[in-house]
Amino acid sequence: MAGAKKSTGGSKDKSAGSKDTKKKKDKGESGPKRAEIVVIVNEQQALKIIQNSKVVTVQDLARQTGVKISAANAFLKESTSKGIVKRVGGYAGHHLYQAVSS
After folding, report:
1. What is the CB-side half-sphere exposure of residue 31 using CA atoms within 13 A?
2. What is the CATH number of the domain that holds 55?
3. Cα end-to-end span (Å), the chain
4. What is the mean pLDDT of the chain?
């Protein structure tokens, strides 16, 4: 003789009111606006670090200049395209960079 399952009072209230009273919000409508933060690597300081080292990684440059890894990576990629720095080794995002000798 199995009886009907008794539900708790709290679960009834949650399921009944959730459809009528709550509205879905669009992601872009509410909440504080995020400010765009731009971090610039000090070019002279970074080039001095690169020239004084045999090779440098993105992580080394970020730690020594005090910026995020993404900013250091962007600086090294830009410097590579300008011909100031060349990539000499590494793998899977852990590349080694060296200053181009003039």
Report:
1. 8
2. 1.10.10.10
3. 92
4. 79
